[in-house]
Amino acid sequence: MIDSHSHTFYSKHAVGTVDELVRASIKAGVSILTITDHAPFTVDRDNRLRLSELDRYFADILQAQQSYQGQIQILRGLEFDYMPGSDVYNRELLDRYELDFAIGSIHYVEVPGEPMVKVWELPRLAGQAFLDRYFADLEALLDSGLFDAVGHADTLLRGVPEEVVLRRLEPLLGLFARNGVAYELNASGLRKSSLDPESGCELQGLWSYPSRLLLPQLIAHDVAFTVGSDAHDPRDAGEGIRELLHALQPLGLQRISYFQHRRRIDVPLGDAMAINMKGEV
């Protein structure tokens, strides 16, 4: 199993040490784990790594690589936030540290005349001004040349009708392959709440993202895919990945990719699904 999106206590809103995440991932049958805590950023500084913690973060990953050699492949990653004007800041971080994988994600959107929108504020996601800004920011992210993959690009499905999200995403699909940016199949959409448009209440247990309707279009555009649990607790290591891949394979998904030394490695889907619940081939 490949899990290319995971977090530890370094992200502040997640729990578990690097060692605890790795041990839980081994138990869950993960064979390739990329640790991708939230990179330092100028917004929401208390929910991510601090610049002063980066050396210790990478030292913890190195220690885990040495301790669990032969049991699991552990890769160094970060999940970067992207907003207009953040290119220089993020590029300086990327130039300073050697990574295997860099995810670019949008968590915060500046809407003129409104407080900043966070993508987990579900009742605010359907506003036209927010949607205009979000997809403009996503286009800029894809054109930035900074990242290997986009994290949970369709997370808006938690609060926005699928046809609206697809209509907004379709003009951008060609940019993924053209710019060499993978599309993340994020399994946390199977665990997170969704907004009921009629009652306005949040519901649990519904598949919100990734979009199954969008997948064939991405495949037609020759887009590469990464997959991740987006675990914020060791108990969620590898969670949902098997279910996700089994559901998407009949829709045409043929391979999953991961990144090592910022270079994409493609794995046939049959190989990625060949590990059973005990982690045995």
What does this structure look like?
By secondary structure, the chain is an alpha/beta fold. The protein has a single domain (2-272), classed as Alpha-Beta Barrel (TIM Barrel). 30% of the residues lie in helices and 19% in strands. It has helices spanning 18-28, 54-67, 87-96, 128-143, 162-169, 173-178, 215-220, 241-248, 269-272, and strands spanning 2-3, 32-38, 73-81, 101-105, 108-109, 117-118, 149-150, 182-186, 194-195, 202-203, 225-228, 255-260, 263-268. The protein has a 7-stranded parallel beta sheet, covered by helices on one side. Strands 5-6 form a two-stranded antiparallel ribbon. Strands 9-10 form a two-stranded antiparallel ribbon. Strand 3 (73-81), helix 3 and strand 4 form a beta-alpha-beta unit. The longest helix is centred in the middle third of the chain and has 16 residues, at 128-143. It is globular and about 50 Å long. The model is unreliable at 275-281 (pLDDT under 50).
Task: Quickly describe the structure.
This protein is α/β, with parallel strands linked by helices and 281 residues long.
Distance between the termini: 10 Å
> Which architecture would the CATH scheme give at its second level?
Alpha-Beta Barrel
Which structural class is indicated by helix and strand composition? alpha/beta
Q: Give me the CATH fold name.
A: TIM Barrel
Spatial strand order of the main sheet: 1-2-3-4-7-8-11
Binned, the helix content reads 25-40%
Largest sheet geometry: 7 strands, parallel
**Number of extended strands:** 13
Tally of distinct domains: 1
Round the Cα radius of gyration to an integer and report it: 18 Å
- The CATH superfamily label reads Metal-dependent hydrolases
Indicate the low-confidence ranges by residue numbers: 275-281
Query: Judging from the principal axes of the Cα atoms, what is the shape?
Result: globular
Topology as a string of helices (H) and strands (E): EHEHEHEEEHEHHEEEHEHEEH
Number of helices: 9
CATH class: Alpha Beta
Write down the overall mean pLDDT.
94
Strand content: 15-25%
